[in-house]
Each structure stands twice: as C-alpha cells, then as structure tokens.
Structure to design on (111 residues):
C-alpha cells in the first residue's frame, strides 16, 4: 500500500489549496479515505473522511464549511479542497486508509 500526498505549500490567510493523495497497492474503491492533520509534538487529528463510494463525508467542526473532501475512484485519488485558510490551519496533512499513512504534505498559512 502506498499513499502519496501532494499540494501543500505556503498560502496567505484567506487563500486556498487543494491537496491530493494518490493511492496504490489496494482496491481503492473498496475503502473509506481520510485526511488528518498534525502539529509538531501533538497527536494527529481527523480533518475529513469520505466513504468508499463518496456518498458520505464527515468533517471536523473546525473545517466544516471551508474544506471539502472528494475522491476519484477511477484515478485512485482523494482530494482535500481547503478554502478560507486560517493561520491555525498550519499543519502537516496526512492521507490515511485502514492502518496505512502517507508521509504527509506541509501546509503553512501565513502572511
């Protein structure tokens, strides 16, 4: 199983980023997918998750209305559209499924 995140970077407050996670090594369409975030020295926190067919999504309260998780099962990819970014969104973001994790992509929100 391999999960490879991309799309992180530096963005100003109020800006947007789109994270991608390319998956391989398993039947992508059979599993729910999640995005987590982690600040240095702290535990990983669930940001959003999406059911295997994409019909159900759930979000942390802190990102509801600003972030959107989606997936393309034909491309084995899950996305996290992040809008109206705030400095407190600064973290490393990880893609996850089952007990597998990617290496993360860093998001920094700063002016």
């Amino acid at each position: 199983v391999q999960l490879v995140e991309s799309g992180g970077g530096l963005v100003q407050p109020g800006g947007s980023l789109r994270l991608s996670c390319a998956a391989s090594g398993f039947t992508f369409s059979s599993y729910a997918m999640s995005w987590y975030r982690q600040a240095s020295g702290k535990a990983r926190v669930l940001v959003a998750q999406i059911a295997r067919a994409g019909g159900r999504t759930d979000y942390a309260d802190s990102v509801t209305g600003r972030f959107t998780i989606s997936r393309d099962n034909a491309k084995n990819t899950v996305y996290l559209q992040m809008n109206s970014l705030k400095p407190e969104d600064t973290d490393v973001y990880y893609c996850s499924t089952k007990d597998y994790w990617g290496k993360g992509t860093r998001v920094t929100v700063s002016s």
